[in-house]
Amino acid sequence: MNEAAPALPDLDAMRAAGAARVDAVGWHYIETLASRTQAQSGPARVLLHTKLQEALQRFDARMSAEDNPKDAAEPLPSPLATLLQDMGPKTAPQGSGRSAGWPSENPRIQAFKKQLGQISVQKQVTQAIAQAPQNAGPINSHMLVLRSLGLMRDISPDYLNRFMAHVNTLLCLEEAGKVKLTHKKAAPAAKTRS
């Protein structure tokens, strides 16, 4: 099975047409794939050549769509954009006398949630400061963070509440990432046992 090595396509025409302006990363991928294809021989070259041809076809379609914007279909919004649109302010019917805004809940419930959040943050900061290392130096990163939290608590409790909300969100995202990684590692192990 000694097949003749396929000839590489000429990329100069696409380069002259401004391929790098359409998609710099995609064009770099194609150029790198072309150089790797040229360096290989045998079945590896055939496989890389097939990938290069597919990448060139997709890239050529993007360049054609860029040249003819009215012929191109309107791109679908990203899932995040759709979510933000669903969560965004709803417009009030005309003539209703109400202004458009976020759907609101009872002001007493909002005040209760705010107060409960402040108490929770104060409790977290107090517990963190109480667990401070005893013999930490003045530039110990743990102590610097605890001092910063204490200063925020004293100077601007509202800022501390917002800051802690962001930190809690980041911690939740980190935990979700860890769970996803453990599921990915567990899946191959389960397949090998079967």
List keywords for this structure.
mainly alpha; 194 residues
Tell me what you see in this structure:
With 194 residues, this protein is an all-alpha fold. The protein contains eight helices and no strands. The chain has helices spanning 12-16, 19-22, 24-39, 43-67, 79-87, 107-130, 141-155, 157-193.
Write the layout of secondary structure elements.
Elements: H1 12-16, H2 19-22, H3 24-39, H4 43-67, H5 79-87, H6 107-130, H7 141-155, H8 157-193
Task: Write a short abstract of this structure.
The chain is mainly α and 194 residues long.
Structural class, from secondary structure content?
Answer: mainly alpha
What's the count of strands? 0
Distance between the termini: 35 Å
Beta-strand proportion: under 5%
Report the principal-axis shape. Answer: elongated
Give the helix proportion (percent range): 55-70%
